[in-house]
Specification:
With 521 residues, this protein is mostly helical. It has helices spanning 2-149, 153-202, 208-211, 221-227, 232-241, 261-277, 282-311, 318-326, 337-354, 359-368, 383-393, 398-406, 417-430, 439-454, 482-499; strands at residues 212-216, 244-246, 253-257, 331-332, 335-336, 459-465, 470-475, 507-512. Strand 2 (244-246) and strand 3 (253-257) form a beta hairpin.
Amino acid sequence: MDDMILYAISGAVGGIVGFIVAKLLERNNASRVIKQARKTASSIVKEAKVESEALKKDKILQAKEKFIELKSEHEKVILNREKKISEVEKRVRDKESQVSSELSKSKKINAEFDNKRKDYEERLKYLQKKQTEVEKLHRSQIEQLEVISSLSAEDAKTQLIESLREEAKTDAMAYIQASMEEAKLTAQQEAKKIVINSIQRIGTEEAIENCVSVFNLESDDVKGRIIGREGRNIRAIESATGVEIIVDDTPEAIILSCFDSVRREVARLSLHKLVTDGRIHPARIEEVVRKTSKQIEEEIIEVGKRTVIDLGIHGLHPELIKSVGRMKYRSSYGQNLLHHSREVAKLCGVMASELGLNPKLAKRAGLLHDIGKVPESETEVPHAILGMQWAEKYGEKPDVCNAIGAHHDEIEMTNLLSPIVQVCDAISGARPGARRQVLDSYIQRLKDLEAIAFGFTGVNKAYAIQAGRELRVMVESEKVSDEKAAQLSFEISQKIQTDMTYPGQVKVTVIRETRAVNVAK
């Protein structure tokens, strides 16, 4: 028991001593750790101070650089503003100087105006005074003349009027006598001109060669056979051909009348075959007319082919070739249409070669320019437009189509072929002798055109050109203004339209030119 107590006490003392020793060892370790931690903390604090100092210096340096940059930008803005302010101030000073100059000029002008107004008022008073004096002097002179002549002013005026009236009567009688003599000399010529123009402008039938063919017979006995029993043969011929047959007292001839020369030619050839064969009856007439019509159609195609071959034109549509052949049986103002078109084609080829253009294309356009004059039915479309439509329909080139449509100015010209075709058409058709027109009346018409132009004030020169289709008038620029030139062109055209008789149209062109000439010595 005592041993157990002793052991317990020894164990307790040992535990206490161990605990104390453990506490002491732990305390030594803690102090060593604390020292080590303090040492580490001091080094960390020291390093943090060094880094903070470096960071502080870097931030201060960046702040200084940013400040310098902002300061320079601010100075630039200030300098720009000062520059703009100085420019504005300069403009303001210039405006002020200009305004002051204008004010001084205005004051000077006002002063001059006041001086002139005063001078005008003084002169007006002076003129009124002089006018009063002149009126007094005039009345006194009239009174003196009345005293000297023993006549009043009214009596003197009456005597003067009577003397002037007698003188005017004498001059008028002389003028009337001269006019009568001139009228007697020109009456016959003017009468012929009026008759010719009347026949040309309002005749119900065209010229004989355009509407009438004469069929010659060997004897008048054949007339009865052509007429037939109760006129059945002649009615059959007229019904089959559409041609009016006139059988009159003309010996050994009958007349075929029709506006269509193709139908007239069919009737002529059919009659020739019937008379030669001797068998004339309605059935035979219809057979011969049918064969002749076919023959004429073949001849038309052959003429068209021969024409295009002669002119060196290739690739033409068969319908256009047929239309070219039909030109043989058409005429324009007495000029055969085929001959006219061939002539225009040749002229176009020559002119195109001279200008360095395609002569074959020019010939093509020249040959086809009047193709619209050979329609098989009546139409209200102008022949130039109709011809252009046909050319477009049958695949002709745009230049050729435009030349056909524009040769009478119905449409605008878009290429060089168009004016060439127009000029060559005028050369062929409008030259004296090409178409049915008396040369004397043609020349007289041109003179009359120029004379009408010279009858207006301000006209310097006047020329009738393009066979009388255009009147070109040159005016004096000092007497005729631009507005007056347009009015003058209208007045001349109205005068021509009223006083003259002419085929087609007359274009009036008024030219006003101003020239400034100096000589360098």
